[in-house]
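Hi P.,

Sorry for the delay on this. The queue was packed all week, but I finally got your sequence through. Input first:
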Amino acid sequence: MFRTLASILVAALLLAACGGGSGSSPLPAPDTAVRSATPAMAPANAWSVALSSRTAPPMAAADLSATQLFDWAEWAYPALFPSHEADAFADPYQYRFYPATGNHVGVAGGAVYLLGPASGGVLQSVGRMQDFACAVRPETCSAAVPGVSVTLESPAGIYEAVRTGDIARLAHIPLRLDGNLALLSRVYLLVEDPQGLFALGTSLGYFTPTGFDLHLILRPQATPGARSGSLRLHVCLDAGCTTRAPNTPLTVPYTVDVLENIALPPVSFSGLAYQAGTTQSVTFALPRHTASWRADWYQDRNGWQPVIAVRTETSADGATGTIRLDPLGTDPGVHTGTVRVGAVVRPPNGTEYEINSEIKVTYTVTGERKVYWFTPDHLEFTIPASQITTQGILTDFSYSWSFSADLRWVATEYLSAPAAAATHPLRENWCGISTLQLAWGTDGALPPGTYTARHVFELTDLGVKSTLYVPVTLTITP
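Then the structure:
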């Protein structure tokens, strides 16, 4: 298999160090350094589509600058050198310090040194600069074939948005070949992937006479967040990669956007029978790029009458959502259900994703069981005659009943009215699921006075039927 063009400096350990700036050196004298047992270093995340080995003559140390080496180290080993830092100088070193990890990397007298947690807190020599020359500038270690070029087609980079824990998926790099293609009887590819986001394997996708797609397998990602970096793609013309396309390696920028899942805890609370309970609130972080979201109540117990009403709110910056659970008046007992939450996420690549979660809810209600209840028990309305319209006077009220009983509205009976109302239509009834509305005087001409009526309901509980009445009084003032 291709041997990597990159080389790891040392294995990471756990000890802090500090330093940086100019003046006295934060690194001990070079003659105190511990020597690395393997100056050639160990392989990093590099792999190819063909089996081969690579041997190339080293560059002269003078051809590689310390700044080039440090820049390459930041690209190749972001876990050790996670930021771009400026060079610092302290005799005899040119070096960089990385506050986030506490690591130093420096050069003195053509040798490369490391100090910090990555070296166990001791100064360590990890080789000569020429040991890294082919890794930093691989194009200087192989011959270029004139008359052939390889370029990135659009999109000249990778953007993938994935949900946390999603299965592996394909990303692709479109490549174009130009020039004397007769020279390309076979092409060998090497991809350097410092962060190890892509699986150790590739395949070639769609072919045309002048190009092809290189397919990469994006590993499942367990930690949310955006990861940006770049791959280096080497296009070689022989198995040993002693010849190459002249404009390679190509730098392929990428962003892997790992979308957050929605984490919601269970909710348990209590209340009194047939009374609205205290609102419970659950606030959570919405996934990045959330375009919309919703929450719906699903009751474990059969029956259409809900135990919980759900309201949703989104913060002004769109970063958090709040679910408010409003307990409704209901029978005593333990009521359970689920709030199902779904967020529609639209990342910059335009692909739409849905991220779902749920809240398990337990609502314990205490008190004596009632078969039915009305709000209020006796309806009274007082309305000035000037407010009567051509639709008459509309009055309504709400009612509920226990899950075990069947309650239905039968009729509205008008009991009394002023004599002057005899020539006017008195009623028009409308009944909803839990609301009853009554229209008095639909011609808009009811005279002042007192009107009485009663709503008639039929209740069936445990197989026994009974009739219930809700009195209504309407007073029209002059």
